[in-house]
Amino acid sequence: MKKTIKTAISLVLCVAMLFSVSAIGFSAADENLYCDGSCEYCPTVIIPGLGQSGVFVVDDNGEFVLNKDGERISAFPAYIQLPKLIGRVALPVILSLLTQSDIGLTNALSDAIGMAFGINSSDLKAQNTGNVVTEKYHKPYSECTEAEQKLINSHIPFHLYDTDLPKDHLYYFTYNSFGNHIDLANELYEYIQMVKRQTGHDKINLVPISQGGTLASAMFEYHPEVMDDLHKVIFIVPALDGSTIIGDVFNGRINFLDKEYLYNGFLENLGLLDENTARLVEILLRILPDELLMKGLNAAASTLVEDIMIRSTSMWALCPSGDYPTAAEKYLSDPEMADIKAQTDKYYQAQLHRFDNIKAIQDKGVDVFCVAQYDHPLINVGETWDTQNADYIIQLDSTSLGAYAAKVGETLPEDYVQKNTYCQNPDHNHISPDRVVDASAGLLADTTFYFDGQRHDLTQHNDVILKLAFHLIAHDDITDVYSSPEFPQFMNGRDVRNLHTFLAAAEAVDVSALTAEQKAELEAAVKQAEDTLDNNTAPADAFGKAEERLSDILVEIGAMEEIKEKKDVPALEAISLWLFGKFGTDGYSEIIISVLGPVFKALFNAIGSALK
Ligand SMILES: [Zn+2]
Ligand SMILES: [Zn+2]
Q: For the segment 509-538, what is each residue's pLDDT rounded down to a tens digit?
């Protein structure tokens, strides 16, 4: 009897499994869930950039690992378990400091990097080996839970923009930035098919952002049939020819491994530390002899590059085509790397065909737009960081599909003539007002919008870029950079976070308690802030002025605390520069020996001659 029940249960289970498999296979169940395809909007698939997807650490049973606040732990860019790390490095650091020699220090640093980034490592088939789960949304934004929407908004603040875009036509494609690139490109293709089924529309808008550009590029190459599924493509600072930072790192051109630069210049130019902190770190670095420090840094960098990055095909997709052959030769020639190389070679072809593939999309009648940013050097990790115009993370040549630009801080020569590589209209002036960029040399000369001085990692805080993207998604009236005076080809970089914070503070003020003068000034300052936000072409300094005026009155009426500007501590800079000038890159123990050595020598000589 028991056996019969068991058999019956297994039969039911088998049937259930069969049905669930067929449901995945045919997927008819998700047809026309959110629209029957008859509305005026095209569904839109956003492919976010590096680290803009929720990728979380799980245990061996696939359960989320939680932090002490009960929250899931992000695996991007690393999974840092501080007690474990300290346990690994504490003793070697103490011993090496005491002896001023390598008592296990380099091995410990290398292990620490491996422990933190190991969660994102891959095997020799370029498949992730770490215990991570990517949060996926097989549904539009409107159907996401509050927590899911919050996570999306933390990367791209949709919630701040009141657009007429229907949120049930907006999809956010998530992926692991260290993931298998070919699998992700295939998954993106399938995702687009799912979106078509769920909405009943046969065409979608695609918005690839930064690293997302590499996935779009791969998909166009591997699934050219997807071109028939597109209504519009809106690239936002896409890494279509990778980032020179990765090109430098993969070719061994790493700046902080240059001793002289590490002790003077690297930290100041990094863009992440203020001058005081940078100088303080420089002073502290000397606690170790320079040779030992460089050995440790070299070991840590090699672990990160050789054990993690070069096994990730998504990282390889960020290597510029010009840097790929030498880097592949360096790291992927070994027979054991053959599987990975076959995959990266495949993407290299997609990268080389990026212009042709985009032209093929345009030939299908699809409008293709692009947003690019310039007037920053690259972050100074790679040796060629200041040789190209960039947006701190990606060189302009990559994001703009070939626009020509002067170096950062320079302008095009007086007698410079527009190249007109991709614009045949003699009436068009594609030189930026600041005479830095020639947009006519970019593939999408008439449909690329440029933002001066906009940092890549702050793109999501530029409200004009978001408004432009939302407008292009929802409407078809803008067909090029000449369609709307609201969105000309060249605009300024901006970061609206401060103004939004100040305006919220102003909103909360009880005006009945203010003097007439204060009330008038607050109103005027709020108006200036709002006008600045409303003006897409506001001059570069308009934000600073509006912020200052509004914060001044908010501080005066006690609605906000004064923001104290950090003062430079000139002593720190002076000490660091003095040490550098006097002792080069020597550590303190070496400095003591070099200072005291001659003293002792003189002393011994004196004693010696006295005894003669
Ligand atoms: Zn619809
Ligand atoms: Zn033109």
A: 999 999 999 999 999 999 999 999 999 999
- Cα separation, 150 vs 354, whole angstroms: 34
Q: How far apart are CA 74 and CA 211, in angstroms?
A: 18
Q: How far is the CA of 207 from the centre of ligand 1 (A)?
A: 18
What ligand has the least distance to the C-alpha of 43?
1
Three-state SS at 46: strand
Q: Which ligand is nearest to the CA of 165?
A: 1
24-52 mean pLDDT: 87
pLDDT at residue 17 in the model: 46
d(CA 331, CA 320): 15
CB under 5 Å of ion ligand 2: residues: 423, 425, 428, 445-446
Reported as a single tens digit per residue, the pLDDT across 421-451 is 999 999 999 999 999 999 999 999 999 999 9
Please give the distance of CA 503 from its chain centroid, rounded to a whole number: 28
Instruction: Indicate if the pLDDT at residue 167 is higher than 70.
Output: yes
Pick from 291, 48, 86: nearest CA to 176 = 48
Q: Is the pTM of this model over 0.85?
A: yes
Mean pLDDT of 257-279: 86
CB neighbour burial string for 44-64, b if at least 16 within 10 angstroms, e if fewer: bbbbbbbbbbbbbbbeeeeee
- Please report which ligand is nearest the Cα atom of 438: 2
CA atoms within 13 A on the CB side of 153: 14
Ligand nearest to the backbone CA of 196: 1
Among 410, 407, 376, 409, smallest CA distance to 394 is for: 376
Mean pLDDT of the chain: 92
Considering every ligand atom shown, identify the ligand nearest to the alpha carbon of residue 41 and give its number: 1
pLDDT tier at 10 (50, 70, 90 boundaries)? Answer: low
Amino acid (1-letter code) at residue 131 = N
Residue 582, pLDDT score: 87
- Ligand closest to 448 (CA) is 2
Q: Of the bound ligands, which one is closest to the alpha carbon of residue 201? A: 1
175: Cα separation from own chain's centroid = 14
Can you give the pLDDT at residue 20? Answer: 44
Q: How far is the CA of 240 from the centre of ligand 2 (A)?
A: 21
Confidence band for 174, pLDDT divided at 50, 70 and 90? very high
How many A from CA of 422 to the centre of ligand 1? 34
Helix, strand, coil distribution of the chain in percent, nearest 5: 50, 10, 40
Q: Is the pLDDT of residue 23 over 50?
A: no
Q: Which helix (H) or strand (E) holds 352?
A: helix 338-352
Q: Please tell me the number of the ligand nearest to residue 140's CA.
A: 1
CA of 182 to the centre of ligand 1 (A): 30
3-state secondary structure of 447: coil
Task: State in Å: Cα 460 to ligand 1 middle.
Answer: 26
Q: Which ligand is nearest to the CA of 203?
A: 1
Distance (Å) from CA 24 to ligand 1 centroid:
24
**Rounded distance between C-alpha atoms, residue 51 and residue 212, angstroms:** 10
User: What number of CA atoms fall less than 13 Å from residue 30's CA on the CB side?
Assistant: 19
Q: Which of 119, 297, 314, 290 is nearest to 212 (CA)?
A: 314
Residue 190's nearest CA partner among 178, 204, 179, 176 is 204
CA of 479 to the centre of ligand 2 (A): 12
How many whole angstroms separate alpha carbon 266 and alpha carbon 238?
27
pLDDT confidence tier of residue 5, bands split at 50, 70 and 90: low
